[in-house]
Amino acid sequence: MTALLIIIVLVLVAIAIWQMTKIFELSQVKSEKSEVANDQDNKLNGYLMFGFLVFIYLLTIFSFWKWGDKVLGTPASAHGSEYDNLMFISFALIFFVQIITQALLHYFAFKYRGEKGKKALFYADNDKLEFIWTIIPVITLAGLILYGLYTWTNLMDIDEEEGDPIIIELYAQQFNWKARYAGEDNVLGGANVRLIEIDKNNVLGVDESDPYAKDDIISQTELHLPVGRKVIFKMRSQDVLHSAYMPHFRAQMNCVPGMITQFSFTPTITTQEMRADKGIQDKVQNINKLRADRRANGEDVDSWEFDYVLLCNKICGSSHYNMQMKIVVEEEEEFNAWLEAQQTFGEQMAAAQ
Ligand SMILES: [Cu+2]
Protein backbone atom coordinates (compact mmCIF):
# COMPACT_ATOMS: atom_id res chain seq x y z
CA MET A 1 0.00 0.00 0.00
CA THR A 2 2.78 2.42 0.97
CA ALA A 3 4.59 1.55 -2.25
CA LEU A 4 1.49 2.36 -4.29
CA LEU A 5 1.09 5.72 -2.53
CA ILE A 6 4.76 6.55 -3.16
CA ILE A 7 4.34 5.72 -6.86
CA ILE A 8 1.21 7.90 -7.11
CA VAL A 9 3.01 10.82 -5.40
CA LEU A 10 6.02 10.45 -7.72
CA VAL A 11 3.78 10.42 -10.81
CA LEU A 12 1.95 13.55 -9.59
CA VAL A 13 5.26 15.33 -8.91
CA ALA A 14 6.47 14.44 -12.41
CA ILE A 15 3.26 15.82 -13.96
CA ALA A 16 3.60 19.00 -11.91
CA ILE A 17 7.19 19.56 -13.09
CA TRP A 18 6.19 18.93 -16.69
CA GLN A 19 3.32 21.46 -16.45
CA MET A 20 5.58 24.03 -14.83
CA THR A 21 8.19 23.79 -17.58
CA LYS A 22 5.43 24.29 -20.14
CA ILE A 23 4.20 27.42 -18.36
CA PHE A 24 7.79 28.65 -18.16
CA GLU A 25 8.29 28.14 -21.90
CA LEU A 26 5.04 29.92 -22.78
CA SER A 27 5.93 32.89 -20.59
CA GLN A 28 9.25 33.42 -22.43
CA VAL A 29 9.26 36.26 -24.95
CA LYS A 30 10.13 34.94 -28.41
CA SER A 31 13.85 35.53 -28.72
CA GLU A 32 16.61 34.62 -31.19
CA LYS A 33 16.43 31.06 -29.98
CA SER A 34 15.07 28.89 -32.75
CA GLU A 35 14.13 25.24 -32.75
CA VAL A 36 15.93 24.81 -36.08
CA ALA A 37 19.60 23.84 -35.75
CA ASN A 38 22.05 26.26 -37.33
CA ASP A 39 25.52 25.52 -38.77
CA GLN A 40 27.16 25.92 -35.41
CA ASP A 41 24.79 23.47 -33.71
CA ASN A 42 25.43 20.88 -36.43
CA LYS A 43 29.18 21.31 -36.21
CA LEU A 44 29.07 20.92 -32.44
CA ASN A 45 27.03 17.72 -32.77
CA GLY A 46 29.47 16.40 -35.37
CA TYR A 47 32.38 16.92 -32.99
CA LEU A 48 30.39 15.37 -30.14
CA MET A 49 29.93 12.27 -32.29
CA PHE A 50 33.69 12.12 -32.85
CA GLY A 51 34.10 12.44 -29.08
CA PHE A 52 31.75 9.49 -28.60
CA LEU A 53 33.75 7.43 -31.10
CA VAL A 54 36.95 8.10 -29.16
CA PHE A 55 35.08 7.19 -25.96
CA ILE A 56 33.98 3.76 -27.21
CA TYR A 57 37.46 2.99 -28.56
CA LEU A 58 39.06 3.96 -25.25
CA LEU A 59 36.46 1.94 -23.36
CA THR A 60 37.32 -1.09 -25.52
CA ILE A 61 41.07 -0.71 -24.89
CA PHE A 62 40.45 -0.22 -21.16
CA SER A 63 38.24 -3.34 -20.99
CA PHE A 64 40.90 -5.44 -22.71
CA TRP A 65 43.57 -4.14 -20.36
CA LYS A 66 41.50 -4.47 -17.18
CA TRP A 67 39.51 -7.68 -17.76
CA GLY A 68 41.39 -9.38 -20.60
CA ASP A 69 42.71 -12.09 -18.28
CA LYS A 70 39.22 -13.07 -17.08
CA VAL A 71 38.60 -15.33 -20.08
CA LEU A 72 38.62 -19.11 -19.63
CA GLY A 73 42.15 -20.49 -19.43
CA THR A 74 43.69 -23.71 -20.72
CA PRO A 75 40.95 -26.09 -21.90
CA ALA A 76 41.01 -29.44 -20.05
CA SER A 77 39.15 -31.58 -22.59
CA ALA A 78 39.99 -33.05 -26.00
CA HIS A 79 37.52 -30.85 -27.88
CA GLY A 80 38.33 -27.74 -25.80
CA SER A 81 40.73 -26.06 -28.19
CA GLU A 82 38.34 -26.59 -31.12
CA TYR A 83 35.64 -24.79 -29.15
CA ASP A 84 38.06 -22.01 -28.18
CA ASN A 85 39.08 -21.51 -31.82
CA LEU A 86 35.46 -21.06 -32.88
CA MET A 87 34.95 -18.55 -30.09
CA PHE A 88 38.15 -16.66 -30.95
CA ILE A 89 37.40 -16.44 -34.69
CA SER A 90 33.84 -15.21 -34.05
CA PHE A 91 35.08 -12.59 -31.59
CA ALA A 92 37.96 -11.43 -33.81
CA LEU A 93 35.62 -11.02 -36.78
CA ILE A 94 33.00 -9.09 -34.81
CA PHE A 95 35.73 -6.92 -33.30
CA PHE A 96 37.33 -6.13 -36.69
CA VAL A 97 34.00 -5.23 -38.35
CA GLN A 98 32.87 -3.16 -35.37
CA ILE A 99 36.09 -1.07 -35.29
CA ILE A 100 35.78 -0.19 -39.00
CA THR A 101 32.02 0.37 -39.22
CA GLN A 102 31.89 2.59 -36.12
CA ALA A 103 34.64 4.83 -37.53
CA LEU A 104 32.83 5.10 -40.88
CA LEU A 105 29.47 5.75 -39.24
CA HIS A 106 30.76 8.61 -37.10
CA TYR A 107 32.95 10.08 -39.86
CA PHE A 108 30.07 10.29 -42.35
CA ALA A 109 27.73 11.72 -39.71
CA PHE A 110 30.28 14.54 -39.34
CA LYS A 111 31.08 14.94 -43.05
CA TYR A 112 27.47 15.26 -44.16
CA ARG A 113 26.25 17.39 -41.28
CA GLY A 114 23.66 20.03 -42.11
CA GLU A 115 25.05 23.28 -43.57
CA LYS A 116 23.28 26.36 -44.81
CA GLY A 117 22.77 26.19 -48.55
CA LYS A 118 23.80 22.54 -48.75
CA LYS A 119 21.13 20.30 -50.21
CA ALA A 120 20.99 16.56 -49.79
CA LEU A 121 21.52 14.64 -53.00
CA PHE A 122 18.59 12.52 -54.07
CA TYR A 123 20.04 9.12 -54.84
CA ALA A 124 17.41 6.48 -55.47
CA ASP A 125 19.39 3.23 -55.52
CA ASN A 126 22.51 1.51 -56.74
CA ASP A 127 22.20 -2.18 -57.54
CA LYS A 128 25.93 -2.81 -57.52
CA LEU A 129 26.42 -1.29 -54.05
CA GLU A 130 23.42 -3.10 -52.63
CA PHE A 131 24.67 -6.36 -54.07
CA ILE A 132 28.11 -5.88 -52.49
CA TRP A 133 26.84 -5.02 -49.02
CA THR A 134 24.41 -7.93 -49.08
CA ILE A 135 26.72 -10.59 -50.43
CA ILE A 136 29.65 -9.90 -48.07
CA PRO A 137 27.62 -10.46 -44.84
CA VAL A 138 25.86 -13.45 -46.45
CA ILE A 139 29.15 -15.20 -47.25
CA THR A 140 30.74 -14.30 -43.89
CA LEU A 141 27.73 -15.40 -41.83
CA ALA A 142 27.22 -18.58 -43.85
CA GLY A 143 30.91 -19.41 -43.31
CA LEU A 144 30.62 -18.80 -39.56
CA ILE A 145 27.43 -20.85 -39.26
CA LEU A 146 28.87 -23.77 -41.27
CA TYR A 147 32.08 -23.69 -39.21
CA GLY A 148 29.96 -23.63 -36.02
CA LEU A 149 27.83 -26.57 -37.17
CA TYR A 150 30.94 -28.52 -38.15
CA THR A 151 32.50 -27.90 -34.71
CA TRP A 152 29.24 -28.81 -32.95
CA THR A 153 28.79 -32.16 -34.75
CA ASN A 154 32.45 -32.88 -34.13
CA LEU A 155 32.24 -32.40 -30.38
CA MET A 156 28.74 -33.93 -29.95
CA ASP A 157 30.39 -37.34 -29.88
CA ILE A 158 27.88 -39.44 -27.94
CA ASP A 159 28.37 -42.72 -29.76
CA GLU A 160 28.42 -45.37 -27.00
CA GLU A 161 29.96 -48.01 -29.26
CA GLU A 162 33.04 -45.95 -30.06
CA GLY A 163 36.13 -45.41 -27.92
CA ASP A 164 35.12 -47.43 -24.82
CA PRO A 165 33.31 -44.58 -23.06
CA ILE A 166 32.38 -44.59 -19.40
CA ILE A 167 28.70 -43.79 -18.79
CA ILE A 168 27.80 -41.41 -15.97
CA GLU A 169 24.45 -39.95 -15.06
CA LEU A 170 24.32 -36.38 -13.75
CA TYR A 171 21.25 -35.84 -11.66
CA ALA A 172 20.15 -32.27 -10.99
CA GLN A 173 17.81 -31.12 -8.26
CA GLN A 174 17.26 -27.92 -6.34
CA PHE A 175 20.08 -27.33 -5.31
CA ASN A 176 22.67 -30.01 -5.76
CA TRP A 177 24.16 -32.53 -8.12
CA LYS A 178 24.50 -36.26 -7.84
CA ALA A 179 26.48 -38.56 -10.09
CA ARG A 180 25.61 -42.17 -10.90
CA TYR A 181 28.22 -44.44 -12.46
CA ALA A 182 26.98 -47.29 -14.64
CA GLY A 183 29.20 -49.80 -12.80
CA GLU A 184 30.83 -52.98 -14.08
CA ASP A 185 28.30 -53.59 -16.91
CA ASN A 186 28.57 -49.91 -17.98
CA VAL A 187 24.77 -49.79 -18.32
CA LEU A 188 22.73 -47.48 -16.12
CA GLY A 189 19.76 -49.12 -14.43
CA GLY A 190 16.34 -47.63 -15.13
CA ALA A 191 15.20 -44.76 -12.96
CA ASN A 192 12.10 -42.69 -12.44
CA VAL A 193 11.16 -39.91 -10.03
CA ARG A 194 8.16 -42.00 -8.90
CA LEU A 195 10.59 -44.58 -7.46
CA ILE A 196 12.31 -42.11 -5.15
CA GLU A 197 12.25 -43.48 -1.58
CA ILE A 198 13.81 -41.15 0.92
CA ASP A 199 13.54 -43.74 3.77
CA LYS A 200 15.84 -46.06 1.84
CA ASN A 201 18.02 -43.19 0.65
CA ASN A 202 17.06 -43.98 -2.95
CA VAL A 203 17.22 -40.30 -3.83
CA LEU A 204 17.60 -40.78 -7.59
CA GLY A 205 14.59 -43.09 -7.96
CA VAL A 206 16.71 -45.95 -9.31
CA ASP A 207 14.66 -49.04 -10.19
CA GLU A 208 15.52 -51.76 -7.61
CA SER A 209 14.05 -54.51 -9.81
CA ASP A 210 16.32 -53.67 -12.76
CA PRO A 211 19.36 -56.01 -12.81
CA TYR A 212 21.43 -53.30 -14.52
CA ALA A 213 20.92 -51.07 -11.47
CA LYS A 214 22.60 -53.45 -8.94
CA ASP A 215 26.17 -52.39 -9.74
CA ASP A 216 25.42 -48.68 -10.23
CA ILE A 217 27.39 -46.39 -7.97
CA ILE A 218 25.99 -43.12 -6.70
CA SER A 219 28.28 -40.32 -5.58
CA GLN A 220 26.66 -37.50 -3.65
CA THR A 221 29.69 -35.30 -3.13
CA GLU A 222 32.34 -35.62 -5.85
CA LEU A 223 32.47 -36.41 -9.52
CA HIS A 224 35.59 -38.44 -10.30
CA LEU A 225 36.73 -38.82 -13.91
CA PRO A 226 39.62 -40.84 -15.36
CA VAL A 227 41.99 -38.79 -17.53
CA GLY A 228 42.17 -39.64 -21.25
CA ARG A 229 38.95 -41.67 -21.33
CA LYS A 230 35.78 -40.60 -23.09
CA VAL A 231 32.91 -39.90 -20.71
CA ILE A 232 29.27 -39.85 -21.80
CA PHE A 233 27.07 -37.89 -19.46
CA LYS A 234 23.35 -38.59 -19.32
CA MET A 235 21.56 -35.77 -17.56
CA ARG A 236 18.27 -35.84 -15.69
CA SER A 237 16.50 -33.21 -13.63
CA GLN A 238 14.13 -33.84 -10.77
CA ASP A 239 12.33 -30.54 -10.63
CA VAL A 240 13.06 -27.56 -12.88
CA LEU A 241 15.40 -26.70 -15.75
CA HIS A 242 19.05 -26.86 -14.71
CA SER A 243 22.16 -26.71 -16.84
CA ALA A 244 25.24 -28.83 -16.23
CA TYR A 245 28.13 -26.45 -16.85
CA MET A 246 31.76 -27.58 -16.69
CA PRO A 247 33.64 -24.48 -17.89
CA HIS A 248 37.16 -25.96 -17.77
CA PHE A 249 36.04 -28.73 -20.12
CA ARG A 250 34.05 -26.35 -22.34
CA ALA A 251 30.91 -28.36 -21.71
CA GLN A 252 27.34 -27.34 -21.01
CA MET A 253 24.03 -29.12 -21.44
CA ASN A 254 20.56 -28.38 -20.14
CA CYS A 255 18.98 -30.83 -17.68
CA VAL A 256 15.27 -31.05 -18.49
CA PRO A 257 12.64 -32.70 -16.26
CA GLY A 258 11.07 -35.69 -18.00
CA MET A 259 13.84 -36.36 -20.49
CA ILE A 260 17.49 -37.44 -20.70
CA THR A 261 19.97 -35.12 -22.37
CA GLN A 262 23.53 -36.09 -23.25
CA PHE A 263 26.99 -34.64 -23.64
CA SER A 264 30.38 -36.24 -23.85
CA PHE A 265 34.02 -35.23 -23.56
CA THR A 266 37.43 -36.66 -22.86
CA PRO A 267 39.28 -35.02 -19.95
CA THR A 268 42.93 -34.45 -20.89
CA ILE A 269 44.47 -32.78 -17.83
CA THR A 270 44.33 -34.18 -14.29
CA THR A 271 43.45 -31.96 -11.34
CA GLN A 272 47.07 -32.19 -10.13
CA GLU A 273 48.43 -31.10 -13.53
CA MET A 274 45.93 -28.25 -13.78
CA ARG A 275 47.03 -26.94 -10.37
CA ALA A 276 50.47 -26.42 -11.91
CA ASP A 277 49.04 -24.40 -14.84
CA LYS A 278 50.35 -20.81 -14.92
CA GLY A 279 46.94 -19.21 -15.46
CA ILE A 280 45.35 -21.25 -12.68
CA GLN A 281 48.21 -20.45 -10.29
CA ASP A 282 47.78 -16.71 -10.93
CA LYS A 283 44.05 -17.02 -10.30
CA VAL A 284 44.57 -18.99 -7.07
CA GLN A 285 47.14 -16.48 -5.86
CA ASN A 286 44.82 -13.57 -6.56
CA ILE A 287 41.85 -15.17 -4.78
CA ASN A 288 43.97 -16.16 -1.79
CA LYS A 289 45.25 -12.61 -1.53
CA LEU A 290 41.66 -11.34 -1.38
CA ARG A 291 40.84 -14.00 1.21
CA ALA A 292 43.87 -13.06 3.30
CA ASP A 293 42.59 -9.46 3.34
CA ARG A 294 39.20 -10.68 4.53
CA ARG A 295 40.87 -12.80 7.22
CA ALA A 296 42.77 -9.72 8.35
CA ASN A 297 39.36 -8.06 8.80
CA GLY A 298 38.33 -10.87 11.15
CA GLU A 299 36.31 -12.92 8.66
CA ASP A 300 36.51 -16.69 8.84
CA VAL A 301 37.60 -17.80 5.34
CA ASP A 302 39.98 -20.58 4.35
CA SER A 303 42.55 -20.23 1.63
CA TRP A 304 41.49 -21.80 -1.66
CA GLU A 305 42.90 -24.64 -3.69
CA PHE A 306 41.96 -25.15 -7.33
CA ASP A 307 39.47 -27.86 -8.25
CA TYR A 308 37.46 -28.46 -11.37
CA VAL A 309 33.82 -27.78 -10.82
CA LEU A 310 30.39 -28.70 -12.13
CA LEU A 311 28.06 -25.71 -11.86
CA CYS A 312 24.43 -25.06 -12.60
CA ASN A 313 24.06 -22.47 -15.34
CA LYS A 314 20.30 -21.94 -15.27
CA ILE A 315 18.75 -19.67 -12.69
CA CYS A 316 16.81 -22.45 -11.00
CA GLY A 317 15.86 -20.89 -7.65
CA SER A 318 17.09 -19.19 -4.51
CA SER A 319 20.23 -21.30 -3.95
CA HIS A 320 21.13 -21.61 -7.63
CA TYR A 321 24.38 -19.74 -7.06
CA ASN A 322 25.65 -22.49 -4.80
CA MET A 323 24.57 -25.50 -6.86
CA GLN A 324 27.91 -27.10 -7.60
CA MET A 325 29.91 -30.30 -7.36
CA LYS A 326 33.64 -30.81 -7.18
CA ILE A 327 35.19 -32.68 -10.12
CA VAL A 328 38.35 -34.73 -9.64
CA VAL A 329 40.23 -35.78 -12.77
CA GLU A 330 42.81 -38.47 -11.97
CA GLU A 331 44.81 -41.31 -13.47
CA GLU A 332 42.83 -44.41 -14.40
CA GLU A 333 44.28 -46.49 -11.48
CA GLU A 334 43.39 -43.83 -8.90
CA PHE A 335 39.94 -43.55 -10.43
CA ASN A 336 39.39 -47.31 -10.28
CA ALA A 337 40.56 -47.41 -6.66
CA TRP A 338 38.11 -44.64 -5.76
CA LEU A 339 35.25 -46.35 -7.58
CA GLU A 340 36.14 -49.66 -5.90
CA ALA A 341 35.79 -48.04 -2.48
CA GLN A 342 32.23 -46.81 -3.17
CA GLN A 343 29.10 -48.69 -2.22
CA THR A 344 27.03 -50.06 -5.12
CA PHE A 345 23.32 -49.36 -5.36
CA GLY A 346 22.62 -53.04 -4.62
CA GLU A 347 24.70 -52.95 -1.45
CA GLN A 348 23.11 -49.69 -0.42
CA MET A 349 19.59 -51.11 -0.81
CA ALA A 350 20.51 -54.32 1.03
CA ALA A 351 21.86 -52.25 3.92
CA ALA A 352 18.63 -50.25 4.04
CA GLN A 353 16.42 -53.35 4.41
CU1 LIG B 1 20.14 -25.50 -11.00
Automatic annotation (TrEMBL):
Transmembrane domains' residue ranges: 6-24, 44-65, 85-110, 131-150
> Where is each Cytochrome oxidase subunit II transmembrane region profile domain found?
64-159
What top-level class of enzyme does the UniProt entry assign?
A: translocase
InterPro entries attached here?
A: CcO_II, CcO_II-like_C, Cupredoxin, Cyt_c_oxidase_su2_TM_dom, Cyt_c_oxidase_su2_TM_sf
Molecular function GO labels? copper ion binding; cytochrome-c oxidase activity
Q: Which GO terms describe its cellular component?
A: plasma membrane
User: Which superkingdom, per the lineage?
Assistant: Bacteria
Task: For this entry, list what GO says about its biological process.
Answer: ATP synthesis coupled electron transport
Q: Where does it live in the cell?
A: Cell membrane; Membrane
Cofactor (UniProt): Cu cation
Kindly give the Gene3D superfamilies that the UniProt entry links to this protein.
1.10.287.90, Cupredoxins - blue copper proteins
How does this chain sit within the bilayer?
Multi-pass membrane protein
Q: What is its EC number?
A: 7.1.1.9
Q: How is the cofactor bound?
A: Binds a copper A center.
Domain Cytochrome oxidase subunit II copper A binding, residue spans: 163-341
Q: Name one Pfam family in it.
A: COX2_TM
Q: What is catalyzed by this enzyme?
A: 4 Fe(II)-[cytochrome c] + O2 + 8 H(+)(in) = 4 Fe(III)-[cytochrome c] + 2 H2O + 4 H(+)(out)
Using the UniProt record, give the first listed, main subcellular location: membrane
- Which UniProt keywords are present, listed alphabetically? Copper, Electron transport, Membrane, Metal-binding, Respiratory chain, Translocase, Transmembrane, Transmembrane helix, Transport
Classification via PANTHER family: CYTOCHROME C OXIDASE SUBUNIT 2, CYTOCHROME C OXIDASE, SUBUNIT II
Quote the function comment for this protein. Subunits I and II form the functional core of the enzyme complex. Electrons originating in cytochrome c are transferred via heme a and Cu(A) to the binuclear center formed by heme a3 and Cu(B).
Name of protein:
Cytochrome c oxidase subunit 2
Q: Which organism is it from?
A: Robertkochia marina
